[in-house]
Design brief:
By secondary structure, the protein is of the alpha/beta class. The chain folds into 2 domains: 234 residues, 3-Layer(aba) Sandwich (Aspartate Aminotransferase, domain 2), CATH 3.40.640; 130 residues, Alpha-Beta Complex (Aspartate Aminotransferase, domain 1), CATH 3.90.1150. The protein is built from 17 helices and 16 strands. The strands form 5 sheets. A 7-stranded mixed β-sheet has the order 4-12-11-10-9-5-6, sandwiched between helices. It has a 3-stranded antiparallel β-sheet with strand order 13-16-15. Bound molecules: D-serine. D-serine binds next to loops.
Amino acid sequence: MTTYRDVLQSGDPDIFECLIGEENRQREGLELIPSENYTYPEVLALLGSVFTNKYSEGYPGRRYYGGQEFTDKVERLARDRACTLFRADHANVQPLSGSPMNQAVYLGLLEPGDTILAMDLSHGGHLTHGAPVSHMGHLFNFVRYKTTGAQGAIDTDDVLRLAQEHRPKLVLCGYTSYPRDFDYAPFRAIADEVGAYAMADVSHVGGLIASGVLANPMDAGFDVMTTTTHKSLRGPRGGMILCKKDIAKKIDASVFPGLQGGPHMNAVAAIAVTLKLADTAAFRTYAKQTLTNAAILADTLLAQGAHLITGGTSNHMLVVNTHSWLNMDGTAAEKVLDRVGLTTNKQIIPDDPLPPLRPSAIRLGTPAVTTRGMTEEHMTEIGTVMATALTHAGEEKKLAALGDQVRHLADGFPVPGLAARDD
Ligand code: DSN
């Protein structure tokens, strides 16, 4: 029987070759970028399903195109499952990904020029949290709070002082590179003090919150929470907005027709399945193991002399300052680790003295290797390989041996949905 892969192989051998190359890269290496994961076979199937053929502008029961019998059902299931899992009144599952998701919240709740109090980019905030190079950074007046001290704590008295001085309309918790958890209640109180909305962007930790191993901002009375669906939640690329009832209409109108046209229903169907799978004992075990693995990886690296931003981790992520540790910038470190099959990303650190394309650190995370079934002993091995590679960066023979070791380790833990090599 001819398969889609056969058709692709003969019809577009260039792209087919890239697909095979990427499959082998994922199979043979280990993914340690904290925002990446290996999704479920069911998600892969739905992303490549006929739901991609369908336009569904509008919302269930109120669409601008016919033929919505199944898409309506899919979107309702996704919304209901999201509300149950995150204890929210309302969910919008249409954002195409993380940036439009956050943009839709700002544009739906605020007026251009309004002030937003958010985490500084180099201290862990995301581009959409007001980086000057982003459109949102021009459209709104972002005021930034920073982490303090070697432990990277957030001084909420200082955040309150900034809020009283600048009177933000929205107070935002959330990060893309911060290896600690937020204490949400003080942020809710600060927002109340100045009459602002309290928003959390939990994109990195959505899966850890869904499973109950990290705190849920909705339990602290936040108005709105955003999360991407492809990081610790392990679903397709996409975004979700969870909110209280009183702002649900504003949020929905802001996503469609305010910012987007038709949602990608293949992704919405895949999000629905992801949310069902996140509400299981197996996923809660996975989330717990993700945190344990991060702690063990941190301990292993610290024992090898590594410098970790904030001194360790309380979530799924680590930031290793290779510049202060080994006088090696994050770009060079990323390349050395790529050479041995460990995929990481270069990372700026708080008030980084180095430029963004050659920053001081690398960022690591355990969601993906935990999905492959790895546990404590494997984190010890990975951390040791990593430290050995970084401290023997110029020694090609050593790096080749470490590369073999990583391939051997990866071989024992298949990527979900990816068959073993057949050559
Ligand atoms: N790219 C995501 C991350 O790596 O954290 C944020 O957009």
